[in-house]
Specification:
single chain; about 575 residues; alpha+beta; Beta-Lactamase; 4 domains; 5-stranded antiparallel sheet; 14 helices; about 20% strand
């Protein structure tokens, strides 16, 4: 079976990622903008210094030959040659009215140069200045300007107002390209750093999530394995090809007990039919069945099977749970039997009282007729028979009343070995003229049971008498005792008699059920009641023609006072109502 595993990425909440972006994005944006501002200031300062240097170079050129005068032609030629320098866009000289005196572009001579500039204020300051603007043709221009001295310049017109102002326009294209490249680099670096930080945080979260998931998965595996291995029910899992994929310890024990040794991975025999039925129906099935084990015994199994579906509905395997419900079914039968006994007990109490009164009258009349006709032998014998039968019916009614009354017990710690030996002595006279041998397997230590001594003797005598009646031609009566680990004492009574037929075994505790011609069928019912009251149990195993074994489990210790008080009243009576 293939288990679908989700990537650890999906274990991170998208809200965490969004929160990181919300916090980090503004920080990185501000850092990027500040960096771009610093680059822009640096480039502006570079252009300004370059322009001022050109102005100083131009002024130095004018002063290079103080013995000669610069004619307008020579000045125009000097401007045109100077404008050929790299990164130089234009050079213009104007008067204070803005009229172009000289220009690197001769076609602009005599025109006005940007009438918006306050030229007189610029001339008054006499310091180099700069500006950056967009020209009417759309070009981005960085311009430096300064008032220059007219010494050594031959002016053609005397109306030109002095001093003159020099304008130098620098080409910002390369610098703009460099600035754009720097901007892209800075933005890319900012995004990269942002991505790196987010990735680092996510990686840490993933690592933490992975460690947590790994630890949780390990705990889940240990927990699941413990549950599967320790669960009292047998677990069987098959894949879609019906190969055994998983079996727990309880399942192995059940499979070994029923099917014996079988090839690993094969389908246990008790699951073949259920698996075939589930494969046809595709639904969950549940049933109880009796199955013969490898050693010839019969056990009852409760089976539950369910197909395992994938998300798309395809069957990917089958799961079965199996448990031994033999004891549960036995308890069910015992419960039903107890209910029948309760009903019979209530009915018997009412009937017994109704019958006993007429019997007393019948016995009185029989006694009267016996005395009256004592001289008539035949009539006297008839009266004797009538009296005997009335007494027999009265004994049956007495047993019936004893059965229907609450059990009254006076429990003490009594030695089990002593009570067994005392009860066996009471049947010695009954086996004197029979070929019956008594065998005792009793331990030397004094094992104590919490029981009423008289009731215990009544239980043992009933069982002994049943064993003797089952061996009319002789045999062996074996009585054994052993202490159990669960605070119980086990007493086993085994005979080699005729045994009990399988069809009769389930009814042996029913009142008045008997296979003996002279029995009343109430002995085992009384034994069952006494043991039930004393928290004991009885189990009968018999094979027809081979004998019977009766196993008694009796409590060893006196219970705590609180438990005893809760279970009984002070007179320790038990009403036979379930």
């Amino acid at each position: 079976m293939k288990k679908k595993i989700h990537p650890a990425w999906f274990n991170i909440s998208p809200w965490i990622v969004l929160a990181m972006l919300v916090v980090l994005a503004p920080v990185m944006t501000i850092m990027t903008i500040q960096d771009l501002k610093r680059q822009r200031l640096f480039m502006t300062e570079l252009l300004r210094e370059k322009g001022f240097a050109m102005i100083r170079s131009f002024e130095a050129g004018l002063r290079s030959n103080p013995q000669e005068m610069w004619t307008p032609f020579e000045l125009q030629k000097f401007l045109m040659e100077s404008a050929q320098q790299p990164d130089m866009d234009y050079m213009v000289i104007t008067d204070l009215e803005g009229t172009i005196i000289a220009d690197s572009d001769p076609s602009l001579l005599g025109e006005k140069y940007d009438p918006q500039l306050p030229l007189r204020e610029i001339a008054a300051r006499a310091k180099p200045e700069w500006r950056q603007f967009i020209r009417p043709d759309g070009a981005d221009t960085f311009e430096v300007y300064k008032t220059i001295s007219t010494h050594g310049v031959l002016l053609l017109r005397q109306d030109i107002q002095q001093p003159l102002i020099l304008f130098i326009g620098l080409d910002t294209g390369p610098l703009s390209a460099a600035q754009a490249a720097d901007m892209r680099y800075t933005v890319g670096l900012g995004l990269f750093v942002l991505l790196l930080i987010v990735s680092g945080i996510i990686s840490l979260a993933l690592a933490q999530s992975y460690r947590s998931s790994e630890s949780l998965l390990a705990r889940i595996r240990i927990f699941s394995k413990t549950i599967i291995e320790k669960m009292p029910m047998g677990l069987f899992v098959f894949d879609h090809q019906k190969n055994l994929a998983l079996i727990n310890q309880a399942g192995e024990l059940i499979s070994l007990r029923i099917s014996g040794d079988q090839p690993p991975g094969s389908i246990p025999s008790f699951l073949v039919d259920l698996l075939r039925e589930m494969e046809q129906t595709g639904s969950t099935l549940e049933k109880e069945t009796d199955i013969s084990t490898a050693d010839g015994k019969t056990v009852s199994l409760g089976l539950i099977g369910s197909p395992l579906h994938e998300e798309k509905g395809t069957i990917m395997g089958y799961l079965f749970l199996a448990r031994d419900i033999t004891e549960i079914l036995s308890l069910r039968k015992e419960k039903d039997r107890n209910q029948r006994l309760a009903t019979v007990g209530s009915l018997a109490a009412g009937i017994a009282h109704e019958i006993r009164n007429p019997l007393s009258s019948i016995k009185g009349f029989a006694t009267y007729f016996k005395e009256r006709y004592k001289d008539h032998k035949d009539d006297g014998e008839i009266a004797d028979i009538l009296i005997a039968e009335v007494e027999r019916v009265n004994r049956v009614i007495t047993q019936l009343l004893d059965f229907s009354r609450p059990v009254i017990a006076d429990r003490h710690n009594i030695p089990a070995k002593k009570i067994i030996e005392q009860s066996l002595k009471k049947i010695e006279s009954q086996i004197a003229d029979r070929t019956i041998h008594i065998q005792k397997n009793l331990p030397d230590e004094q094992t104590v049971i919490w029981f009423d001594a008289d009731k215990m003797e009544q239980v043992l005598l009933n069982l002994y008498m049943n064993a003797l009646d089952a061996m009319p031609k002789g045999g062996t009566l074996t009585v054994s005792m052993a202490a159990q680990k669960n605070d119980m004492v086990q007493i086993t009574i085994t005979d080699t008699g005729c045994g009990i037929a399988p069809k009769d075994l389930a009814r042996i505790y029913d009142p008045y059920f008997t296979t003996k011609s002279t029995g009343t069928g109430i002995g085992l019912a009384i034994v069952h009641r006494i043991l039930e009251f004393h928290n004991g149990r009885i189990h009968v195993e018999s094979e027809e023609g081979q004998g019977t074994t009766v196993t008694l489990l009796l409590p060893r210790e006196k219970p705590l006072a609180s438990e005893e008080k809760e279970r009984n009243d002070t007179n320790e009576t038990y009403h036979f109502n379930l």
